[in-house]
Design brief:
single chain; 5-stranded mixed beta sheet; 4 helices; 5 strands; globular
Length: 140
């Protein structure tokens, strides 16, 4: 990886609002994920992300999700199980025009079913966008 690519990945990872020492759980890892972004996230938190089998409380969930991964609401419900009270889910979906893209309306429909609300969407790389989902303030 070139220094410029590392810098770009670090800048993208910085948009997630992560802090050193946070526990970040990753769901949906596959060969198509953005490895540079993953490494930049791990640099910020100062360690490796934990996998889907981790059974303690986590601060942030990074959830890679594609159209053929199943029911999004069910996936979000699984992801929020170990999430801390003020935790955040970053739903990573392929950008429009990419294989596995999920329509914004599908995310808007699935999030409330899982007790989450969408707050923002960012470009997380050439192929991925990240949608920030949190528990509504009234439920916190």
């Amino acid at each position: 990886m070139t220094a410029a690519a590392e810098d770009e990945a670090s800048a993208r990872a910085g948009r997630f609002g992560l802090q050193p020492g946070q526990t970040v759980q990753e769901f949906g890892y596959d060969l198509d994920v953005d490895e540079q972004l993953r490494l930049a996230i791990e640099d910020i938190i100062g360690g490796e992300m934990v996998d889907e089998d981790y059974d303690d409380v986590v601060d942030v969930v990074i959830m890679w999700w594609r159209e053929d991964d199943g029911d999004l609401a069910d996936g979000l419900l699984d992801a929020i199980g170990p999430l801390a009270d003020h935790g955040v889910v970053w739903l990573m979906t392929p950008k429009p025009g990419r294989d596995g893209h999920i329509e914004a309306e599908d995310i808007s429909d699935a999030a409330p079913t899982a007790g989450l609300q969408q707050t923002s969407t960012i470009s997380a790389g050439a192929n991925w966008q990240g949608t920030r989902l949190v528990a509504p303030r009234a439920k916190r």
